[in-house]
């Protein structure tokens, strides 16, 4: 787990931060804080440690507190370490109507963890989340940037097994997002 | 078959690419607007069309545009609200994913009408992959001269950017959205001043929903009068409805405003009826915030008239016997559904999503969630049901933004129409165990 005192963005990420900051008028670069936090989260092991947030503050030339207060407000930012794949199962009305609780129970049993916990091998973290806008294709779960919809137990098994054998970290900024911003 | 304006081409392969979209008449509205119309004329056309905000509030778009302050030398902004997070609503995601260029085209045309040289599409963080689709479309639009400096040689310049959020329902509220876009916590602002006067970075700003901006395209192409011919009374045009829950054909449907609710639920063209041959118990007609209605009241008004899919007809009878069209998030529940448990998922949602700024909402949403949890755990009393009613009535109207109301209305409506179910749960806790709290996936068709 990365927990160095000083974290540095890679040169590519710094260039990307610069590009994002250019979208806003002169002096309004603070607007970049959310996109840059997303970059930090994917670059620094899927979560935002204090040094990671400090790196964001340094990149944007704003005070660290301005980053902390934002990071703690939004639910997509992890302030604690997570597994390589965070499984986010939607649990609000439409998904619940279509069996989201069964999906959660199935994943809990399969991975031997409860909602909010990380599996012993560090591969998966299970989270239940509020409506992800996939109500017509419920039940659903999000892993990284990918939506997995119309779930059944068998489908969940296949998806999780695939992620496990792949073994790679999944983040919201997957899908060549970083290269094209 | 109803007329389609937005989803006319949604099933054409490759419509998400510039070439196919352009072949189907894409970007015609930009050409028409920039070359043959003035901003004032476009605003007039939008007023004539009767278009109302498709995000949920239903405020007339033309009027909202005309409120935009135009002090000299101050930049104006158009911000697209793509923070679609209302439970039951997924129409904007469908539109952006399938036909991203329609939104970009609407952004350019609308920005010209408003005199905005920069616009932002604020999209919820979970839709990262949709943001990617939009970015690709924007790149294509730049490459083909629809965005950038001096568009079509008319001297109008425009830049459009996608901004991702990070998971906060409250950022769908326009002032919270602007706060978030400024890189802050999503705490709604006190109004006035309204964004039309002091919005993004203190500059005049219009915030419109994705569907609203997309609807500007057919309005400019065919004229406001043509658009207003569709629909009934003050509900003009078409509306995207996100249908979910216990129906045979969930999905996004574009309807002409004014079709009967019964037709929407039961006809093969739309929802295709209740699945597994069950009976309908209740419907949430416009996203989680609007009052839930039992089957008889959603199909017919209290006066016995057939209920129509319009702002007015769904609102008929006020909150006593009516509801709202809202965002068009249509959640259908069958006879086995526990209304109390469904309400619990809503209460949990609002508790999670309250920004914490106003005490009635911050404390009230959590309190309501706890009481509902207590009832579902078999420890409720009749006094708890009355307490729930009391709490919700003390949130409504006492908060900066409408999240307070959004949290209170579903609780009030569930108790109003299904009090017997609450009382059954508290008087006979064993009955809760007999209730199917959720669907077993095995039963899925």
Written overview of the protein:
- The complex is a heterodimer of chains A (181) and B (445).
- Chain A is of the alpha+beta class and 181 residues long.
- Chain A has 2 domains: 11-71, Orthogonal Bundle (Arc Repressor Mutant, subunit A), CATH 1.10.10; 85-166, Glutaredoxin (3-Layer(aba) Sandwich), CATH 3.40.30.10.
- Helix content of chain A is 42%, strand content 10%.
- Chain A contains 8 helices and 4 strands, in the order ααααβααβββαα.
- A 4-stranded mixed sheet of chain A has the order 2-1-3-4, with helices on one face.
- In chain A, β3 and β4 form a beta hairpin.
- In chain A, α2 crosses α3 (50-60) and α3 (50-60) crosses α4.
- The longest helix of chain A has 14 residues, at 153-166.
- Residues 176-181 of chain A have low confidence and may be disordered.
- Chain B is of the alpha/beta class and 445 residues long.
- Chain B has 19 helices and 12 strands.
- Chain B has helices at 18-23, 28-36, 39-49, 61-66, 91-98, 100-114, 128-143, 174-181, 210-222, 224-228, 261-266, 295-299, 311-315, 318-321, 339-353, 359-376, 382-395, 403-427, 430-434, and strands at residues 77-82, 118-123, 148-151, 156-164, 205-209, 231-232, 235-236, 238-245, 251-256, 280-284, 292-294, 329-334.
- Chain B has a 5-stranded mixed sheet with strand order 3-4-2-1-5.
- In chain B, α5 crosses α6 (100-114).
- Residues 436-445 of chain B have low confidence and may be disordered.
- Chains A and B meet through α2, α4, α5 and α6 of A and α7, β4, β8, β12 and α15 of B.
